[in-house]
Amino acid sequence: MEILYPDIAQELIERRNHDLDVRQRLITEGKLFRGYNPEMEEVHLDNARQLQEIIVQIGWPAQEQVGEEASQAAWLIVQHAISLPSFMKSCLALMNEQEKTRTIDPVNVAFLSDRIAMYENRLQSYGTQFVSDSQGQLIAYELDDSVDQVNQRRQQLGLNTIEERLAELTAQMNVEQKNQPAATERQREKAEYDAWRRKVGWLSD
Predict the structure, then answer these.
(1) Residues 62-103 pLDDT 10s
(2) Is there a domain that residue 1 lies in?
(3) Looking at the chain, which terminus has fewer C-beta neighbours within 10 angstroms, N or C?
(4) Domain that holds residue 66
(5) Structural domain count, the chain
(6) What tens digit of pLDDT does each residue of 25-68 get?
(7) What is residue 162's predicted lDDT score, i.e. its pLDDT?
(8) Of 98, 78, 99, 77, residue with least CA distance to 88
(9) How many CB atoms neighbour CB 32 within 10 A?
(10) CB–CB of 66/49 below 8 Å?
(11) Could you report the per-residue pLDDT of 13-25, keeping only the tens digit for each?
(12) Are 171 and 22 in contact (CB under 8 A)?
C-alpha cells in the first residue's frame, strides 16, 4: 500500500522511537518510577504538540495516510499524552468517527478508552490498564463487568486474557522496578498522583 504522507510517517516513527529510548534510559538510571519524571513528561508533551499539528493537516494518521507502523506510533504518542486530557479524548473521538472510512485498529481504541476511563476514575471495559495495589502488586484496574465478560471482549480483539497479560506485565515490572517503594512511599505517590490528575484536568473535584 502506497503511503500518502511518507515524511509525516517518518516523523511519527522517529518520535515514538525517541520516546521509548528516553524511557529505557530513565529505567536504567532508576529515575522513571518515582512519580511522573519531568524529562519523560516533556518528551510526551512535545510529541503530542507535533501530533496535534499533524491531525490538523491530515486528520487521524490512519494506515491509509501513513502506513501501519506510523499509525501505531501515533497511537503510542496519544497513549502517553497523559498531561493533556482534552487531547486524548479528542483523539479517541476522532478515531471512533474515522473508523467508518479509514483503517483504525480496534485494539488501539480499546486501550485509549480504558486509559481515559482510568484517569477519570471510571471503570474500564477491556482490561488493558493495570495498577499497583497497596502492597505494590500489579492488578487490573477496576472492570465494568465480570472478568469472563471482559476476557470475551479481549478475545474478540485478538488479545490474550487478563490473567495472561497480568503475568506478562508482572514479569516485566519485576525486571524494570527492582527496588519497589515502601508502603508509606506508595501512599505519598498516590496522593501526588491524585494531585497531578486534578492539576492537568482529569479530575474536577
Answers:
(1) 999 999 999 999 999 999 999 999 999 999 999 999 988 999
(2) no
(3) C
(4) 6-200
(5) 1
(6) 998 888 887 788 999 999 999 999 999 999 999 999 999 999 99
(7) 97
(8) 78
(9) 19
(10) no
(11) 999 999 999 999 9
(12) no
